[in-house]
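Newbie here. four chains, one complex. Structure please?
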Amino acid sequence: MRPTRLRLVAFLAVAAASLAACGGGSSAGAGSSSSAAAPSESASAPAATAGAVKEGLKIAILPKAINIPYFDAAYAGAQKACAEIKAECEQIGPTQATGAAQLQFINTVIQKKYDALVISAADANSVVPALKKAQDAGVAVVTYDADVADTSARSVMVKPTTPDLIGKSQVDWISKAVGSGGGEIAILSAAATAENQNAWIKIMKDELAANHPELKLVDTVYGDDDAAKSAEKAAALMQSHPNLKGIISPTTVGVAAAAKYISGSKYKGTVQVTGLGLPSEMKAYVKDGTVKSFGLWDPGMLGYLGVYAAGVKASGGDPKAGFKAGDKDYTVDGDGVAIVGPPQEFTAENVDQFTF
Amino acid sequence: MRRDAAVLFGQLGVDLDPDRPARGLSIADQQIVEIAKALSTDARVIVMDEPTAALSASESERLLDVARRLRDGGAAVVFVSHRLDEVFALCDRLTVMRDGATVRTCPVAGTDAGEVVRWMVGRELTDLFPKTGTTPGDVVLRVRGLTTDGVFDDVSFDVRAGEIVAFAGLVGSGRSEVVRAVFGIDRYDSGSVEVLGSPLPPADPRAALARGVALVPEDRRQQGLFMPASVARNTAVVVLSRLARRGVVRERAERELAAHWAQRLQLRHGGLDQPVERLSGGNQQKVVLAKWLATDPRLLVVDEPTRGIDVGTKAEVHRLLSEQAGRGLAVLMVSSELPEVLGMADRVLVMREGRLMATLDRGEATQERVMLAATGQASVAGEGSAA
Amino acid sequence: MNGGLRRVLAGREAPVAGALVVVLAVTTAVNPRFLSDQGRFDLLVAIAITGLMAVGQTFVLVMRHVDLSVGSVLGLSAFMAGSAVRGDTGGSLLVALLVGVVVGVVAGLVNGALVAFLRLPALVVTLGTLYVFQGVQALLTGGTRINADQLPASVVSFGVTGFLGVPWLMWVCLLAAAVGGVFLRTRRSGRDLYAVGSNPPAAELVGIPVARRTLLAYMVSGACAGGAGVLFLARFGGVDSNAGIGYELPVVAACVVGGVDIFGGSGTVLGALLGAMLLKTMGVSLSALSVPEFWQQAINGLLLLVAITADRIVLLRRERSARVEAARHRREHAGAVPDPPRDGADRAGHEGATTTEVVR
Amino acid sequence: MSRVLSWDRSVFVLLVVTVAVGAVIDPDFAGGSNLGFVLQDIGEIMLIALPMTFLIMTGEIDLSVASTAALAGCVLGWAWQASGSMAVAVLAAVGTGVVCGAVNGFLVTRLGLGSLAVTIGTLGLYRGLCYALLGDTTVADFPAGWTNLGFSSIPGTPLPYVTPLLVVLAVAFGVVLHLTRTGRWVFAVGQSVEAARFAGIPVARLKFRLFVVTGAVAGLAGIVYDLRFASARPDGALGFELAVIASVLFGGVSIFGGVGTMWGVVSAVLFLGSVRSLLQLQGVPGNALTIITGGLLLASVVIPVVAQRWSAFRERRSRVLAAATP
């Protein structure tokens, strides 16, 4: 375990940052009164339905980075939605997942006068100013997959599932895999600053403490979504914790690297791996028995709903009141978050049915 | 491979350890290694470009022996040199070139040095060493017990205003190292350096400059000049603070300074903006001299001031040094050319293996005495320390 | 002969090997599992890729050049090799290796041609090709990714199995190091690389075909990076468009720690490999010693600085003692007059040095 | 290099042509808001490129600049939270840059280590300290007044607030490099370190100061970065070092030192920013942008060499022809 002083500092910093995010959000919201005028006008419009979406909208899909299978699956869903609402949509994005790199593309969206932007924020804070600028320029902004810190910088967030469900499911999977005997487990995360990962880890910790006394979380390490680094971190976990029974990796790169490492080591069978992974990448490891089960949501649905929400907003509606996508209605909570559904669990039996 | 190397060195009549890194070898031995390298490829034609420029007399002799052996073994040797005595000692035929064109090719036997010099410079050369007699003034430089472990040991001497003092000795005897230490390029372990009566801080060339010491370094291309920079910039680089107003260098003052010195040294150049790398060796050396004379020094240290430059420019450099000494400048000259040492110096300091072996006045300095002291073959009467 | 032993002890590899032993000993004492069968295996797997690239990089560095494009070449080769054997279940490991190495050699040819024939600065050229190769790879991969289930079993198991307790990946690295080391040490063209690196104009004058040797060095570096791409593919059972990004500086760092002179002319493949081992081992040992996660990178950077500083101090001390030794030798053997070594002074390059030319 | 074909002039011409062509084919490109964006986007790169030009001119290099900027950015966030005063935080951040530069300078000039090796080491060290300082947190509560400086425009103009800073520093660095004694020294050291020592130029002190200035300006860039992204984070400015060096080299500064101009570098940064923006607006994918960046960098060294060989060839031929005619 890390020295307590460092943890205290880290905790205080997190607390301060989250407080600040709330404070900053309200003040910035009040400040941008000009942009608030547009939604208030549309608030009086009739409740949004799929029929209220204009045709011929120009929608940009901006993932954290391009060339990532997960986001390509999401884009496939977005294209499906665009075909349904007769919008013109295009995926643009950087090759490396940083907020700084995304900024370029947000500027392109503004200059090229897109009607709407559906974005997965590579970094919760750094794209906020640019997104506000986009809103000022009349672009409807919806986030999918990963949200921004300041909720006034977007209208709606399409979340794969609730952090609560993601955290608890992963604890369930590892508990099932390790068995009733329990033991030590560790978490292999992505970047140390990844906000969604950190939120899930916190929930996992609470869930472990509350309902799984047999499991002991002994370490959290960061593989930075880099295959080599993640594999080395997994190997290092075995060095520092010889009694480890399981690894949870709530990121697709990390869980694949950990599974690959364990499958080729003497720990196969004694150390369980689970987390959030793509069926295509994980297929080999559930079949060879390294991984009993893992999970994810359907990324296609993220793109699909993102486009619908953006379409409603760009047509003058307010998706915050709930919106219809395809033939299904989705509710939006007080923070402007729409939930796709519970995560899907993959096992050796069903993994072949999924294409992403 | 090591055995092959040893055999080659044997053929060349030298005793070298094949395992030694080339970096630590004397220049003479490095040349031998170069030649061994050529032999290892069974070369039939060997071109030697100024092979003795950095060598002292005895070392040169050894190299000439090697060249003769190569010739006798059936190889063709092309020997490029500024040293006419070597040409006459070694070569069978000679070709004189001037300004990129061949002036004449003829057998060595049918000509003499005077004629060759005339072909080289294209005119009669009257006075090679225009030394004028001067009366020495106050002591400008006083060095006492200067020592750097393993390099030179307990070196003491004085240089007076208006005097030309020459450092003679073999290459590697520590002469250049002493003047580098005096100027502050290298740190020394013990001893003292005084300029005009007050001590000079060690390892601080700026302090030396501020006190009127200037050093024309041994290696013109690496140490003396900024090759891609213009004549004007090279001339002005040491005196920039004098040319600057509120930190901004006045280009006009810089050009005036350069033009002044170019004219005084009869620099043949294609404009003050011409990069010095396009100048001939002799003209490059003039730029180096101009650069240091522009600092208006009290003590001018010159290290091999005429190495690798043509005979005509050599004479001009010698005239300049004499003239400056005549005006009261103290000159300390390191040179491997005995005629230059004997022709120019008021006093000759001879070094061997890091120690000062002899101090000879102009009257008592002869080629034999200097060489004997330099090679240590017999001890020579002399003060051994400062006069 | 005893000269051999003397050279080994005087070499710059000895301190690196010593440091490696110390790190291994200390870490094992604190955490005995560090060198357990599995721990050792994992460590060697982690070393293999950087090690192989460091072997190739040595060829370029001793020539006073550098190859920054190795990370991009790794990514490109891993993807091309993966595509070549994708869906093929037969024994196609050799095909993958062949494709990977060929891709690397071609990339090396591009770098080498620009550096050798146009005489462009290596740092600028390979920084440029770093971007170009990376872009080409990303264009070729597009959104695709090669996964473990698409690769032949021979490739995937190559990444996790071994022979005599040493992973196959490490055997590849060791084989390359052995061949490369012997070549540099004993072959004439290998020695030429050092000659070029310590004094390019002089090398040209003694008739070394400098351009051809430069091309060769870049092809070797490319081939190693290409081979490392296949190792990457085997180790991670797949490849995506981010493979190899940011690998170049750690590889150069490994060589520098291993005593390869960044200004050319000296350094050995063995040293580079030891450097890669030392850096990786230090990194892994920090985890094994339970150093807090967030401090590990800082400590790693600090250790790298300590390593190069220590190397420099050892070198300076050795030069000084050599100088005093030479002076003593000189006094004892009057007549032979060695020139005292000066820092950085490269006398052979000066005007006036003999130059020999061969006319056949 | 031939005077007429000098690379820095070519880069400036390229910049003008790019902007002109861009304005014709894409009206959005030449718009005020895009101009402002481009200036903002190149801000940190331009800042760090100014002192980096000096360093590369003297034959040194600093690969740790991005890590230095990130560390200064982290210190800005940390100090703001600790002290509650932005003035204190800004001072602490710039001070961090100075210390980082001084460490590099010390290792290079006092211990005589190669700057490439040293700054690969400090690149890791400074980045590691970012994580040690902030760990998995992000500081995002900077006062709105300050973050507005980072991303809004000067009222009445499309220009970001960083513009005056860029102009003042670029002019200042240009004046120092080309008109002052220090600048002459920089050229001299780059052309021959040994000759510079013999000319009494305090080489070690000059280089040490250049490293310190580079660190300080990198620290400043770290602040600009934090304000632009309204947050301080340990992985800020990642990978900027190669972008900065690519810009400096593209601007005609020789990697061997001694050759280059400040306006060439400034033109290069502006050109690369404009090209990137233009291509982005044309919908050219990010991968192609990577290839173009690398290709331009290669062109910057290939074209002058080819041009030089061509002119040397023509000169030789005309001499031969002149000699042939009676």
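Moderator note: The beta strands of chain C are 162-163, 166-167. The interface with chain D takes residues 114, 118-121, 123-125, 127-136, 138-139, 246, 249, 252-253, 256, 262-263, 294-302, 304-305, 308-309, 312-313, 316, 343 of chain C (CB under 8 Å). Thread marked as resolved.
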